[in-house]
Amino acid sequence: MLALRTLIGLRAEKIPPVQIRRALHALRDKLKEVGNPLTELKIYSQGRKIQVQFAGRKMEPISGQLLLDFDQEEINKLMSFPARGAAKTAPKIHQARREAEHWFEKGLELEQSGAPVEEIISAYTKACAIDPNSAGSLVNLGTVYFNLRDWRRAEQHYRQALEVDPEYALAHFNLGNLFDERGDRSGALTHYVAAIRIHPGYADAHYNLALLYQSVGQPLKAVQHWKLYLKLDPGSSWAAIARRELAKLKDTIVRGPKD
Fold first, then answer.
1. Low-confidence residues of the chain, pLDDT below 70?
2. What is the value of pTM for the model shown?
3. Phi then psi for 136, rounded to 5 degrees?
4. What does the alpha-carbon distance between residue 107 and residue 187 come to, in Å, rounded to a whole number?
5. What is d(CA 196, CA 198) in angstroms, rounded to the nearest whole number?
6. DSSP state of 66
7. What's the distance, CA 131 to chain centroid?
8. Of 37, 70, 103, which residue is a domain's last?
9. How far apart are CA 137 and CA 124, in angstroms?
10. Domains contained in the chain, number
């Protein structure tokens, strides 16, 4: 009921479902100790943006950026850098991050509104230019190129995101999709497994990994990941497909392969 109330509240504030889904996906990826963000975190809207209360602080869920609404003691901690002159440059760093965050959010808004792809690319590119460590912008830019079937640029941006954050499960998952699309099953396997290692509850990765193992003739491993997927996401429309494929595999295993 708590999860439902949170979703109803966000929709009442006219937050698009795509934005809600992305925020929840990002929270599961970044806060691996949190099982269900909808029930374990305070998620609310600030204008047309989603924010989350975590460990007494406000956070932008998709980028993971902490919002500067701390008390003076916390601000002093953030501003106390060991290097000489760092305190003077800190405001510039925060300003750059805020500007990068602006372009990141602009890219999301453009995607949700169905804007021309050139405008979307421009927004995410500006975010990356201002803050090269904006892993979320790099991944989203990679996905834009993925949808354009520009595999080279998509892979380049996904790998840059992993250089920024090697434990970014979404970047591994997207690379897995990229390799799978190109017919490189070995590469796809490597990155799907990496995504699950980082985030064992990554339902979509289990789904794709089950399909991959099924396609390469490893039914026992496929069964394992179908079962895990169904535990994680039993009520979605994809669960019906998972149950059907699982039943087919079990029947094949019991009867043995046909001659």
1. 1-93, 254-259
2. 0.65
3. -65, -40
4. 29
5. 5
6. B
7. 19
8. 70
9. 6
10. 3
